[in-house]
Amino acid sequence: xxxxxxxxxxxxxxxxxxxxxxxxxxxxxxxxxxxxxxxxxxxxxxxxxxxxxxxxxxxxxxxxxxxxxxxxxxxxxxxxxxxxxxxxxxxxxxxxxxxxxxxxxxxxxxxxxxxxxxxxxxxxxxxxxxxxxxxxxxxxxxxxxxxxxxxxxxxxxxxxxxxxxxxxxxxxxxxxxxxxxxxxxxxxxxxxxxxxxxxxxxxxxxxxxxxxxxxxxxxxxxxxxxxxxxxxxxxxxxxxxxxxxxxxxxxxxxxxxxxxxxxxxxxxxxxxxxxxxxxxxxxxxxxxxxxxxxxxxxxxxxxxxxxxxxxxxxxxxxxxxxxxxxxxxxxxxxxxxxxxxxxxxxxxxxxxxxxxxxxxxxxxxxxxxxxxxxxxxxxxxxxxxxxx
Length: 388
Prior knowledge:
disordered C terminus; 12-stranded mixed sheet; alpha+beta; 10 helices; 12 strands; 388 residues
């Protein structure tokens, strides 16, 4: 499927990591547990699958898809056997599954892109470190309380060894020299740091908001690392009228990256939401009624293959080529044209019907009842009754 669809999509700009939930009842469907379900927006009984999609500004396609197996399932031999879970499948967090999918995609020769993910993955610093080990660029969401070193600051160097005991290996922090929350740093930025950026056209017009980007160092447990975290971008969105920033991202792109480029990549993650919506509502991804591991992934593979076919057909004639490449022009409409169902301009007005002056219903005339004939009374002596 990838060999046929990816060339039609065009140059790959991003790899999008995300997961989706499927509400389920009972406890026998493989991987089902009470966990967060994005479809419901709350904790509930559901299955969750992690996916990796390749995308650009015109199209996107899932290229990896795996069920998340909660730890209660991973350690339950009886349920694993009933659900047909392969022996090599062990408990892994969602970011760990995503990293494996990314490594597999690189091994298979899929063109690399900037990795995009929400704060559920960006908050896992092991996930970010895994991307750095693979030499991949990323733009991932982070929580407001994520610790960062303000621009121009960093953890203190390792304390000099006095010649006694074990040599110090940890970088230090001191009073008045500590990382701060990313949200607090954003609130302290001057008004000149914020710019209005438009990233794409939406259904109701251009999508626009206020953004700021500063170079920082993550402060998450850097005292346990042999070297500080590398410097990266902290991208912040603070829409007009909001009391505080609403979204934050870490991006390890180059120092010369423009703010518009950072915003465009951060907002490109929305394509995975549309993928899930179409896969579930149009192609039946959420309609699997089986219970086993193999059936779950077989059903998803067929749905994604059908989606790949649709993506290929859509990209065969992109909307931007209708007037330029193909030479087609939008036909002009005559002055007398009227849409179907609309009232013609020359139509005569309909007469007004006095509905409130309706005549009373007509009732049939009552007919005079005819007298029924009566049987003549028989005299008792005329009755001839014999009993034998």
